[in-house]
Design goal:
- The chain is of the alpha+beta class.
- The protein contains ten helices and eleven strands.
- The strands form three sheets. The protein has a four-stranded mixed sheet with strand order 1-6-7-8. Strands 4-3-2-9 form a four-stranded mixed sheet, covered by helices on one side. The chain has a three-stranded antiparallel sheet with strand order 5-10-11.
- Strand 10 (293-300) and strand 11 form a beta hairpin.
- Helix 8 (328-338) packs across helix 10.
- The chain is flat.
- 47% of the residues are buried.
Length: 391
């Protein structure tokens, strides 16, 4: 289907699931800062007035989980008693225990080429030429809208907003290319005394237009707080848990996902590092100009030092004018010549033993320009072209 509508969503940092993701990654960062070889699988649940931190950790470091949780919740903006979820008065339960020694057996010295994968699983990476970030347009706009909601709240541009919120963007595609935004959906938590018509007008002018401007047309429809009221929100309204927003975290539904969540996991877990490497490969393939779209899937077994499988899908978008004899099979063969896919070398190539993960926990793990996101570099595109010539 060449002409179609496609929708993606994002959520703000005050969304309950994202509160949990941020705490999980803040715990991970704190441990990696003191012991970069920490093995971490941190799971968090948040609800009305409480935070439960669980999971498995093996580390030489000591951290104050209580302080980490309160710092994250304060930074998000849950800092008033009337929100029902206040960093000062939270009940915090620490249920972290030691990692299974049976699992640890498969993971050898970090950054050693013989290091095994921390678990089985398949991971997917994707890239396309729809945006400068080489990401699908619907998810990029959705993330920017959610981030803008947080920005106008924190900078007091729209001081009546509260931390929870969602965005959703529907894009019309013609001949497989994005043309305009068909619909924008915003759910923005707010103070009880704000006028709904004022809120709608301000969000359109201060949030939607600055982000989506060039894609808006007379056909675009706006759906803002469509129930009419969004005062009760955050963990008071819904229980949140780590890893429940894997489509938001990846490609907005435009590509497959491996199924494993990212936040709270150290990079020996291929759910995270394998997904980052898959994105790195796909992005460099698209950046090289050999195709318009690319999806990469890799798979591992626990303790395995090389992938069980490697799959490439270009969605029939190979540039045959420049590369008349190129096939997906040939692309698959050159990938191991450009990228080392052993778990230890993935960590080394992408420099993943750093406390960089809290930044990833909101507004997407991909399509980011911050220096910490090493998997977003396109420094392998030239080498890919060299290898193609050598086939």
């Amino acid at each position: 289907m060449k002409n179609f509508l496609f929708t993606s969503e994002s959520v703000t940092e005050g969304h309950p699931d994202k509160v949990a993701d941020q705490i999980s990654d803040a715990v991970l960062d704190s441990l990696l800062k003191k012991d970069k070889y920490s093995r971490v699988a941190c799971e968090v649940t948040v609800g009305m007035g409480y935070v439960l931190v669980g999971g498995e950790v093996t580390t030489k470091a000591f951290i104050n989980v209580n302080n980490i949780v309160r710092d994250v919740v304060r930074d998000i903006g849950y800092d008033k008693p009337e929100y029902g979820f206040d960093y000062r008065t939270l009940a915090i339960f620490n249920a972290i225990n030691e990692q299974s020694k049976d699992i640890a057996m498969g993971v050898k010295k970090t950054a050693d080429k013989k290091q095994g994968a921390g678990d089985q699983g398949m991971q997917t990476g994707f890239a396309c030429r729809e945006t400068s970030e080489l990401m699908p347009l619907p998810i990029i706009l959705s993330h920017k809208l959610s981030k803008r909601l947080a920005e106008v709240r924190k900078k007091k541009i729209l001081p009546f907003l509260r931390p929870d919120g969602k965005s959703q963007v529907t894009v019309y595609y013609e001949n497989m290319k994005p043309k305009f935004v068909q619909a924008v959906v915003i759910g923005a938590q707010h103070d009880p005394n704000v006028n709904s018509s004022k809120l709608r007008k301000e969000i359109i002018n201060k949030v939607i237009k600055p982000v989506c401007g060039k894609y808006l047309t007379s056909k675009t429809s706006y759906h803002i707080n469509t129930t009419g009221r969004f005062v009760i929100g955050g963990p008071v309204a819904d229980c949140g848990a780590t890893g429940r927003k894997i489509i938001v975290d990846t490609y907005g539904g435009m590509a497959n996902v491996g199924g494993g969540a990212f936040s709270g996991k150290d990079p020996t877990k291929v759910d995270r590092s394998g997904a980052y490497m898959s994105r790195y490969i796909a992005k460099n393939i698209v950046a090289s100009g050999i195709c318009e779209r690319c999806e990469i899937q890799i798979a591992y077994t626990i303790g395995g030092t090389s992938p069980l499988s490697l799959n490439v899908n270009t969605f029939d978008s190979i540039n045959f004018k420049k590369f008349p004899n190129l096939t997906e099979e040939k692309i698959t063969k050159i990938i191991p010549k450009v990228f080392d896919l052993s778990p230890g070398m993935i960590i080394k190539q992408l420099n993943l033993l750093r406390p960089i993960y809290r930044k990833t926990s909101c507004y997407g793990h991909f399509g980011r320009k911050e220096k910490e996101f090493t998997w977003e570099k396109t420094n392998k595109a030239r080498k890919i072209l060299i290898e193609i010539k050598n086939i």
